[in-house]
Amino acid sequence: QVQLVESGGGLVQAGGSLRLSCAASGRAFSRYSTGWFRQAPGKEREFVGYISWGGDVTSYADSVKGRFTISRDNAKNTVYLQMNSLKPEDTAVYYCAVRAGVKYDYWGQGTQVTVSS
């Protein structure tokens, strides 16, 4: 069992930055790859980005590529999502999730990010 808690969300003006954290407790967090997802009101949840368990592989959705960066500190059981040049369309609840295989097994409760124009 892995418990995930996201933090760092808030209200920011367009062009600003936020750093989200995903803190994990429970089983060997460093063995899990981590994904970030988001869900805007009235829309389906969408993939934002991913980092491998060792931190050497990342991938991003086209909509955030070049603006968002995912990193991890396994010693702190934490994964970060650095978000720069934020746009109003980035407004959503952001979730982290972990997987050992193909399927994301554990999810956090989410943190709200609101970008004002």
Structure, explained:
With about 120 residues, this protein is an all-beta fold. Helix content is about 0%, strand content about 55%. The protein is built from no helices and eleven strands. The strands form two sheets. Strands 2, 4, 5, 6, 9, 10 and 11 form a seven-stranded mixed sheet that branches. It is globular and about 40 Å long.
Q: Report the sheet-strand fraction.
A: over 45%
Helical run tally = 0
Number of strands: 11
What spatial form do the alpha-carbon principal axes imply?
Answer: globular
Uncertain parts: none
Look at the structure and give the mean pLDDT.
95
Helix/strand order: EEEEEEEEEEE
| Radius of gyration based on Cα positions | 13 Å
Coarse structural class = mainly beta
Please outline the major beta sheet: 7 strands, mixed
Instruction: Report how far apart the termini are.
Output: 40 Å
Helix coverage percent of residues? under 10%
List keywords for this structure.
seven-stranded mixed beta sheet; four-stranded antiparallel beta sheet; 117 residues
Summarize the structure.
The chain is mainly β and 117 residues long. The chain has strands at residues 2-7, 10-13, 18-26, 33-39, 46-51, 58-60, 68-73, 78-83, 92-99, 106-107, 111-116. The mean pLDDT is 95.
Q: What is the strand and helix layout of this fold?
A:
Blueprint: E1 2-7, E2 10-13, E3 18-26, E4 33-39, E5 46-51, E6 58-60, E7 68-73, E8 78-83, E9 92-99, E10 106-107, E11 111-116
Parallel strand pairs: 2-11
Antiparallel strand pairs: 1-3, 3-8, 4-5, 4-9, 5-6, 7-8, 9-10, 9-11
